[in-house]
Please model this.
Amino acid sequence: MKALLSLACCLGLAASACAGAGDTGGGSGTTLSVAIVSNSQMQDAQKLVPIFEKEHPGIKVHFISLPENEARAKITASVATKSGEFDVAMISNYETPLWAKNDWLVNLSPYIAKTPGYDAQDFIGPIRQSLSYQNNLYSVPFYGESSFLMYRKDLFAKAGLTMPEHPTWQQVEQFAAKLDDPKKNLNGICLRGDPGWGEVLAPLDTVINTFGGRWFDQKWNAQLDSPTVISAVQFYTDLIKKYGEPGAAQAGFSECATQFGQGNAAMWYDATSAVSSVEDPQSSTVSGKVGYAQAPVVKTKSSGWLYTWSLAIPKTSKNKDAAWQFMSWMTSKDYMKLVGQKLGWSHVPPGSRLSTYQLPQYKKIATAFAKPTLEAIQSADAQHPTVDPVPYTGVQFVDIPEFQDLGTRVSQQISAIIAGQKSVRSAMKQSQDYAQTVGDTYAKGNS
Model:
């Protein structure tokens, strides 16, 4: 808890820059202050919220929508310092169990039990479990994801290449080299390079895990300068620099979505939730041309991450009942149908509810990606993410409060490698120092 409170203080300036964003203003009834990440599925929710307000005339919803890194900083600072700024906060399976343990979040299980038809058992098992603490849900998933490899079936066919269902990273490198064609503005692959523990580290950590690396050994000795980690980081950064997108050191999920959707990349390794943009014919030029394979591996059977953007009620909210009414609407079975009917079935938030994959209209458009999405999520092993044993859980993160700051610092070193500003060994030596400082506090039992 001390670590998160310290982090919140460090983020104070960032949070104050948005001060007042949660003000509800005048008028009658309840105005909910809802902090969300400005990804495409959340933007869809903003378009549909007038329907909720019409059905609930006493409730108005005021969104505070920020890019991922800014949203994390602001929400963490607000909840950790108990500012009471938000009635609903969008967090993930990283924050949920940690914050529940700190008694910062409302236990949602009693609300769920009193909501007919909500059906929490319909949430995909690993997603539901990742949002639970002591067998109670403390946030509910808006969408869930693992990671997989997206590739252009037409380009592979033209080049006489066949993508295995379970490729290795070495095979991916070979495909990227074969398909990379700068003269045609075609990159062999798109990979995140943007700083942020939820940006470049998300895919990179899965590479580190399957190469045999880990953040800490069982005695909390940092391992970021070990031969296996250095090998994984060297492979990832070389792959980007040789065959990746231009400006990769500043490219995250959104930039790769644009690159791939506009036909400028032959492959893209990223979140399974990317299908919402990739398969949207109104915004993607490659809709219907994409194949999906499981996350590439080296030494592990699977390597996909496990992640969910979810909604929680901070304990400080003064409008808890109204907050639950909104949250249960935005994460319900009926909401999934509403998105499909109003915005198109490719817009339906994926990876949260099993019933979504039984909707006839969604099954029709999800033929190519439904099975690999569910397989990726269900095979993600947050309890045993690495080859060698570790004292933490989490595939693309380490489930300790300090990881927000530690991960951000390390991610900046990785981006510097991609930008050509640092060597791999220099960057990982600095990263090792950062990690060992954190590891020492756990080794001494002073957490």
